Fold these 4 entries.
Entry 1:
Amino acid sequence: MAHCERAAKPLLQCLQKSYTKGLPGLQVQATRAFQTTAIAREEAQTETKSQPFHKSPDPALVSSPRLERRLLRQGISPIGSRRRRAALETSPNIPFEQLPYQCFQEARNILQADREEKLKDIVTIREKIARLEAVPTEQAGGLQVKNSKLVAMNLHLDHLKVLADVNDPLVKKKFEDGQGDMSKPIYRYLADKKWREYRRKILVQRITQMKVIPDVLPHCDPVVDTKLYFGRTATQPGEFVNSRVSATTPKLDVQLFERGEKLVTIAVVDSDIPNVEKDGFDYRTHYLAVNVPISATSTKVDLSKLSSESQVVLPWMAPTAQKGSPYHRLSVFIMEQKDAKPLNVADIKAKETDRSKTLRTLQARYHLKAIGAHLFRTQWDETMEEVMRENGYSDVDMELRRKRVEPLPYKRRNPSTFR
């Protein structure tokens, strides 16, 4: 017996006993279950008549690892945990909120009473906001004071909305199933919490251990979840990307956890361009775009489809690494524009023609604030020479070698001076 089946067996026995004895309030709805599971189970039952379950597995009911892998190869993710799917597959269609556990139902009653109190507080704070908006600006102490009070009240309102739903098991179930509405504060809060528990820590570790901070920018506190895609595959922070793959313009998924919309500047910088004359490294901006809108519900940013007239300042330039040079760090920074005001693209194009300028200069000149980052690496590989020739690099046939350092006389073997 599989582990998930053994774990779900006690739950199944309890459900079967309660279902055979008859539960008040469940007999009428026994044939109609919770929407996300009942419909899936009814469809699965009708499909089993035409073809077996193993040929067309249901993502809400599959519990076999082999069938899960088959769904993942098809691009379909199983819904929820394996233990829950195993219990749903072998249990009657009882709604989730009406599970026959006395302790569970009593806990739900307590949570419901607490939610009603939070809803009353929400109504009260909304009335206060409406009264403040109706007050003339002069009586409220000026425009700046009035706006600051409204911002504080709206933040408190979002906090109350989160407290009203944070303990609701149906909300947590919907979020775990990937069906959360990011326009609501509770789902933004849960997504932000999940991101900070693991993925943000990995990102901060990569950009600090690989010295992206402070080599490129002096400081960056990521508050947005940034994902980088070359094709369909997501690139992990610090991962090596093949030169042929990175020659195409990537896509970004920038998840904002705040309400409203922001205008951001996106920059991709290589901070490891070898400079033989000064025996050091230079910078090269591989991409620069301004006035890119992002929000909690609109996260997809295709860098190849941004407007060349109103957004793109420097188009995508294929990352390269010369033979003999160490790996190159390609840093992706998401920088918020001040007060969400659009920048003049024509003036920026006239000034920012040199790709070798540092990102610090750009940040200070246009008052930008770094709110997100990503990182990938490139190195000399079997396709790098072809990519460099296609993009017109002049130093394709040049190989960098370490300069031989002559040892000091006392470290030489049998020097002539010792004879």
Entry 2:
Amino acid sequence: MDKYLVPHKPSSQNPSKPPPRWSRSLIELNGRFEPNYRHSVSGLLMESYSELRAFPHLYHINGGPCQTHLNWIDNGAFLYDQPSIGKQGISALDFDRKCMILKLFIARVMNLCYVVCTSMKRNEVFIFDISYISSKPSEVLRTRPSVSVLGSNIHKGLTDIASTSLDDSRILASDTYGVINVWDRRMSAFPCLELTTDSRGTLNSIQLNAEDQIIFGAGKRGFVYVWDLRGGRTSSALQSNKEIRHLPLTSLKLSSMLEKIGPLKAQSDIVSKEIHSINIDPSCPHQLAFHFDDGWSGVLDVHNFEVTHIHCPPPAWLNDPGVSADLLYLRKPSWLPINSIYVVGSSTDNGIHILDFYPDSISPSHVDYKEDVQSLSGVKKQDKQNRFVPLSEELLHVQFIPSTVPS
């Protein structure tokens, strides 16, 4: 309202200046970085990122072609009912928080250093004990066989994997037939529980909440599925070696939720899209980030099941009409450990989008963001905007090395 006020005429006399007031920042007073302060300076962190080095894949090794690359070309396009050739190869990376080694589809918490590997071409989970050198897995877990109506075996490749935070004996893996398989390694090499979606669509990504009580899954059909393992038959199933199939507690169609955002619906046609990845915000556990095949990213608030943030870059096929959504590689974005910053590889350019998904309307990606919102806590306001960091090559997966973060 100040812009409607008529300013006072300056006084002809020089008024005496008030004595300076003693002030100290909250950091100096309590020794802690408050969330609002971290967010206010997060722009400086986002500006600091740049490419250090690229490690290209060598398609010719010792004068001969890379066998993995040849298999990818020869077999990927001809497998019956398989994901497209553009979705073959490494689809996820992670770091062991204890051993600090690079992993492919690793269970996050292990008493020992185990590498856990899966593939979209196989229905097996290979567990390698890297405490000794061996090309053979120390343990192999398998999905239960399924038969189609015509009597043929149904192929179930595995797409993503997770483990419970307190007990490394339980491993979960989503498959290409819309099922999350749950193994108890102490009991059997076959799943003790199958979490089904009542759909044959591929599940690309799964996430466990911090208490290992809620499981989220998402994939090709554009739905986020939620299973609740607290109480009832589902809870006891994890302690039984008898196979149990369980439907989700609820399923959420993200395209329907995006239609509730008036300005977005007015600017774009909202259609159902394949979900490449979902990720829980480590600094704000009720925020579940999602990433679509067309490059859009956003946040689903799992407390009230509303989309609170959205980032909508142009899709890859807008610049190149010959590119189909079905031929795009799966992208796996990642959260920074603090500040609710989400990082995703661009679908159109060589680079990454660094997105401010702070859980408040002061975030530039929030659906209720207002340009004139001022920063709280009296800290000097930084420009709130998302960043794009150009890179030398296309980036599909982002992962940050765990480190000690000050409280």
Entry 3:
Amino acid sequence: MKLVVRRDPVYVRRRRIVGLIALLLLALLVLGGVRACQALVGGRGDDATAAALQAQKAAYDVSGTQLVKRQTITGNINPKSVAASPSGLVIAQNMMYRHTVTAYGADGQLKATVPDAVDLAQFGVKDAKGTVKGAPVEATWTRDGAKAYVSNYSMYGPGFVKNGFDDCTVTSAVDRSYVYRLDAASLKVDQVIQVGAVPKVVALSPDQRTLLATNWCSGTLSIVDVAQAKEVATVKIGTHPRGIAISPDSTTAYVAEMGGETVYQVDLAARTAKPLVKPGKGPRALVVSADGKHLYVTNNDANTLVRVDLASAKVDQTVSLASQPRSMAMSRDGRALYVVSYGAAAMSKVRTSDLTVQQVVATEPSPIGVAYEPTRNAVWVSCYSGSILVLDEAKGGTPAPSPKGGGPSASPSGPAHD
């Protein structure tokens, strides 16, 4: 009787269905385990890269637009750099010439002038002796735009007697300086972090856990734990480190040795550095592609912009630019780079795919910083001579003026405060 039931077609069909369901459940369990393992050993990096690429894909396309001048901002400023938040707040760092950070809306209107004077004791710094001033150099925003970290070239006031200078070496007696954290809502300093001597570029890892700062006089890279608001390690780089770029998975940093010819690769977990590539003389600014495959480098003394293939650690594209290409920003869609040429009073828009120069715009003297403002798809250029040029990426309108008669010849060494 049992044998007859087992051979019954209905019974056989039901057994097969149950078996298929069991196999499907088993497959789902195995797939879930694989994905869990990927998350533990590297899935986060894959997810971060995918998210960055998706954001680029959805961004405003600048491949068919041109830069149109909107306005020139002046006032009590000597902006070394500009940095734009995701929500359109732009801050300019005015060094020791003004001792301020000026904050602007996306429309170019001044929102606040933030002094760099702080009482370090109020932030828990032991043995602080009163109010001191900094000298804001560069800045980087958190991903949500709530905070900005600002480096200070040097500190001035009680307790600081060995101020920074550009011609220093690692043996120079220079006081360590601080990075300020600026709150976007209050536009006030709400945190300070001690780093090395003459910190310049600051960068946040995509996972927002690590802040990096290049210390010009110390010849090191500071690694700061954001949660602790504390420098937890330093990595030796070389002569006058400056530019920083961080891989999409937050595991690797790239650091430009502007006083030499080398870009270093830093393992952020092991906290070790090794030479990656020699892209040209005086490498200054670095930008990494959203897929983590390419690194873009400006060479201040070689007057070039190069693209490095990170898999082979070799330069695979090069373009010559006007005198002293310095700071660089990438468009939100990843299709263009904006590079300022300090010695030529010019800014170039360069296509990332093949480094074709698409447009060159005349600026005021000494363009030194540049940022891409995403809410209005605008490019902000800070000129050390005392102004900020705001350009819109537009599909119509009159293109911004080009330089007349070309720029001055290249200089092997830039002016003070590189």
Entry 4:
Amino acid sequence: MEMTARLAHLDTKVDGRNCDGFVNHNGETTEIRVPLSHTGKRLSPIEGGNLYRLRDRKFLLEDKKRLCAWALGTALLGILLMVLHAELCPVVYQPGSIYALSINGLISFSTGCLLILIIAFHYKDIRLFIIDHNQVDWRIAMTSNRVLGISLELIVCAIHPVAIYLRPDMGGRLGGKPEQNSSTPLCLSSSHKEVMLDVELLLSALMFLRLYLVHRAVLLHSKVLLSASYRSIGSLNNINFSFRFVLKVLMNKYPARTLLVFIMFFWLSAAWMLRLCERQKQVETGGMDTALWLIAITFLTVGYGDVSPHTSCGKLVCLFTGVMGVACTAMLVAVMTKKLALNKGEKHVHFFMMDIQISKRIRHAAADVLRECWLLHRTTQTKDNSGEHRHHQRCLLEAIRVFRHLRLKQRKIRDYASEMVDLSKVSQDIHRTGLFTLIKRHSPNPDI
């Protein structure tokens, strides 16, 4: 008994520390506490409270949706201000005037707000990653791909026209008559060089890259991502809820509406960019009506050749329009093919009626074969008219050919109809029949 008590005492004592986390020093007990984080670092409620993870995750998703909507609205506002500024100057106000500086200031202010919203969105995304993976250190989420993606987004969203801040011509008076200088593509003063005009043109066109935020807004506001049913079933089937999956769902549910919205928006954007590129050359494609016509015939891959771009920028716009036109035409053909295709029930009805009709034709063809055989036999017995004999021989051969052709056609229709049988239903029926046979075989009552 004494040896057993000593062994029990030694089992509970390991290096002066017992199993309950206490250390014995000369009969005194001291509590040992192991910190879960670094010294001097306090755990936030999101990192420390596992009971509130679902609630915090829901709040972070709502914040991401709100920030994405605000970012998309700010990006569209900047693009609209840029288009308004390019159309009003120098027709309404002079380059370098207070109006030009004000609109450019608003464009720069919207760009700064957009950058702040992008940073806030990725901050919420990192916090959501920490909650999903139950991590403490935020630096774990900063992978090389994430850092590269954030940097690329900030660079794309920071692009906007800035040449007016470099050497603005402040000689124009506030109430003076604006110069009808339509040879410059943008609102720049005459002191700027041709290279600066090209750079400003490129920066204005690249502002349309901010529209990449549309796919993020569609993803975050789609019912596919918000539905718990979709997410639970998708997680069981290893489905990644990305923009590609949401786009496939939209194309399956609303194909005509989705393609129409995309094509109309692309036509207007590409036509305005072509007009912006071409109006510096004082050519006919510098007008909006001609630009719309050129973009339409290029998008539809018609290319009448009546108008053509003259600048390098315009040629690039038309080249990109042609590529997008081929892609949209392929999608349109796929959508129309799917809409015009028969479903399973319609195919069953259609092939059933075709089989009935061809069966009637086969019976008529068999009757023709029998009739020609009888007529040929009758002319053979009489042996009077050899011409009539040859005529009935030709008719018999033709009737046999028609009969064989119809039988082959019926066989093809039935083979195609047999391929449409639901294989899963057949397998379930076979499994059910086998199960019933097994139960009947091993049942004590054979009449069950």
